[in-house]
Amino acid sequence: MHKKATTFDDQILKLRSRGVEINDEEKAREILADIGYYRLGFYFFPFEKTYPELGNKRCHDVVKGTTMEYAVALYYYDFDLRNILSKYLSRVEIAIRTTMIYELSNKYSADPVWFINPNVVEADFINDFDAKVYDTISKKPVIKRHSKKHPNDKYAPAWKTMEFMMFGSLTKLYDKLKSVDDKLLISRHFGVNKTSVFFSYIEAIRHLRNACAHGHVLYDINMERSVTKGPAGKFDSNTSSNLVAALSVLRYILSRVSINRQKEMDVLLDNATLTLYSKCPTLRNIIESKSGIKV
What we know:
- Helices cover 60% and strands 0% of the residues.
- The chain is mostly helical.
- It folds into two domains: 1-66, no CATH class; 79-274, no CATH class.
- The chain has helices at 8-17, 25-35, 37-44, 68-107, 123-137, 141-149, 158-161, 167-175, 180-187, 195-213, 243-257, 259-279, 284-291.
- The longest helix is centred in the first third of the chain and has 40 residues, at 68-107.
- 34% of the residues are buried.
- α3 packs across α4.
- It starts with 7 loop residues before the first helix and ends with a helix.
């Protein structure tokens, strides 16, 4: 049976029944109206007595002394993380995109649409390209103008087409390149000598980027793919798929693009983390273990 919707008053009663201290009910209603009861629940999670249990043994009761302000502080910390990281993820994405376009378009200069060349790219990528990638890209004004000017071209050249590819499509294109040498042209630009390592890096960037773009929880992120050991660091089973690994990859790739931007990002992350600790010092152990940010 589905649970029924509840009023703000009901939600306040539920939170109190779980041990959450709420001293200002009017402010609590304002917070619930702004953030939402369900979304805020993700930020009460680390205060639960059974944290990090998610199975049948999970209990939503929180440890003594947990206030509503603690969860709100963690929510806004997550919000700050998304805003900070989005800027630098964009810088990294553009660098990877530009490198792929430049290196392979120059290598295959006789074929401006090498991305659908069966000698260069695996057949399954090419077979799905129209439906999964180009049908959307073809609606872009730049591509429409190209098609009008060059009606015999089925596709616009790589430097136009790939500019509009989703980052997920770019990572898949990298994975589907037939030649290891082609992959190394890209990965070595960022100081990575193993293509499997670089693929795990760009997958981590993709996952982190999508989490930021769609407002997902970051402090407790769990990526689909573990990050492989490489120049960004070595990660154990507890950290290889969480924010520690994702941030380490972002820091490493960003440092290859601009060391000044990497240092700038670290300062912003440290400042946001110190702001959180000023409001809720008990979160230090969780944030350090989940993110690797230590200030």
